[in-house]
Amino acid sequence: MNYKDIIKSVNNRDFKNIYLFYGREYYLIENSINAFKNSLNESMLDFNLDIIDGKEIILDQVISSIETLPFMDDKKIVIIKDFELLKGKKKNFTDSDEKYLIDHLDNIPESTILVFVVYGDIDKRKNIVKKISKNGIVCNCDKLSDMDLFKWVKKKFEAREVRIENAQIMYFIDSEGYRDKSSEKTLSDLDNEINKISSFVGKGNQVNNEVIDKLSQKKVENDIFKLIDYIGEKNSSNAIRILNDMIQEGESVLGIFSMIAKQFKVVMQVRQFQLEGYTSKVIAEKLKLHSFVVGKALKQASNFSDEIIIDMLNYILESDYKIKNGLIKDTLAVEILVSKYCQRKLVNKNTLD
Predict the structure, then answer these.
(1) What is the domain extent for residue 183?
(2) Any signal peptide, and if so, which residues (predicted)?
(3) In total, how many domains does the chain have?
(4) Most buried among 81, 193, 274, 298, using CB within 10 Å?
(5) Whole-structure pTM value
(6) H or E stretch covering 255
(7) Domain check: are 230 and 198 in the same one?
(8) Quick one: angle between helices 253-275 and 280-287, nearest 10?
């Protein structure tokens, strides 16, 4: 039973007693959670929906939640997120606890729907995983197939009331690199890009290849590389120019901060591997990054010491908090970053010796 069929059956209230959703496509996992929520009487959600943190839950809490009857509805749904036993961990459970729970999965009340969700991989060797698979449905929320991805992207653009031809949908998908084996792109990333493009062209207007290129993630990544390079060269005027261009093209300041932080973390990683004697090719393989990204990071490592990078990451973290709490304007925060670090001595020669 594939993901679409599972969600369709849930929407039709054709339930199994046990489900397990896992994988890297958090978007699909969250969509499945919403499908279960929407299947219940909204006015009775507080009584008939339990969402539990599986990293902290104990056996008595699991059993109690499963056995509690629904109130003014025919079903109760128990959702347990990141349940430790499914990932091969036993922080809160003994071997006897695990066996008791596994045995209990054979006797779940007909009125209870038990849903496990794991954001990432599961340990398929575990007896509890085998039991869930035998008694219910296990669904790997992985990347969409080519056809499903095309339909999903098309639907997302249509929902935002912009016009786009099939050829441009394919061009967008290829530009994002979602289908690449080494790609870490998720549907959430694509949804953000679709929203950005749709906002840029406006309702009723046409999306073309030029707009996709202008706003593509690859261009954004290149702009981030340039921005960091300009800061390393203490070229504040060009750094500000790149920033303004990115903001005008729809990038949020928090998004820019996130990408800067991500790149500096890569810089620190590649520098450490380089100090250990690894070649750029081996570093790329170890970090599962494109050789171009590693090459840029190695070049940038010569302009920034670890001390300065950590200082910048702390500034970004602090600014993120201030922006979200209305303590500083986002554009001012990022302009301060450029001004502050274009004036500082960025290289610590001791780290390069």
Answers:
(1) 146-215
(2) none
(3) 3
(4) 193
(5) 0.63
(6) helix 253-275
(7) no
(8) 130
